[in-house]
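Input record, target 12 of the design panel.
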């Protein structure tokens, strides 16, 4: 090191292997995330109606109605991994937007025209202002931003991982005997990973800011 260089923590989020998901910190993160998904005020899925994937597809084809199907998966990372005082487990439930199909099992198409990130020039201007004497720059993040926005556009049905299944979705949960083959529920919030979630969040957040 010299006066021109210094160590900088990048606050890297390191993927956590599933072999560690049983640890107390991981289990707490998992519980917190699912509680957010099923919060009655902002539930991401309509759990009042569970149907078989093939049944929803047949009905949509009969009615000549376009619907989308996708899977929900989970990721776990250790945030701020370089700093023992700031490390924390973060569990995220995500919609697999790269593998969405229609009722006819064709690849789903999306508008994909939302949430343009700030330009490099714009961010540099903000930083420059913050470096000016008498000014400070602050950044803020919205809590569970995307799922604050309602899901609009094509009706979308999601296949949940079994850990999120309610007890009545099982004939015998302890023995692993399910009541359904491929149960799906309708998505009602713009879950992370959905190709148009950024568009929905952008519209929702602008509406809130203008109000």
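The sequence produced for target 12 reads:
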């Amino acid at each position: 090191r010299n006066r021109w260089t210094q160590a900088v923590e990048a606050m890297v989020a390191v993927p956590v292997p599933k072999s560690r998901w049983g640890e107390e910190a991981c289990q707490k993160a998992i519980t917190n995330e699912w509680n957010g998904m099923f919060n009655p005020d902002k539930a991401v899925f309509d759990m009042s109606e569970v149907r078989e994937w093939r049944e929803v597809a047949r009905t949509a084809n009969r009615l000549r109605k376009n619907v989308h199907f996708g899977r929900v998966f989970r990721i776990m990372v250790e945030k701020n991994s370089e700093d023992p005082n700031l490390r924390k487990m973060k569990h995220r439930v995500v919609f697999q937007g790269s593998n969405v199909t229609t009722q006819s099992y064709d690849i789903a198409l999306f508008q994909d025209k939302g949430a343009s990130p700030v330009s490099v020039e714009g961010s540099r201007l903000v930083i420059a202002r913050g470096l000016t004497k008498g000014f400070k720059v602050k950044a803020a993040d919205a809590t569970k931003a995307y799922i604050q926005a309602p899901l609009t556009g094509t009706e979308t049905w999601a296949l949940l991982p079994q850990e999120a299944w309610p007890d009545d979705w099982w004939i015998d949960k302890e023995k692993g005997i399910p009541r359904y083959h491929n149960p799906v529920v309708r998505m009602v919030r713009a879950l992370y990973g959905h190709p148009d979630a950024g568009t929905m969040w952008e519209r929702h957040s602008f509406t809130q800011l203008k109000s």
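The CA atoms of residues 190 and 197 lie 5 Å apart.
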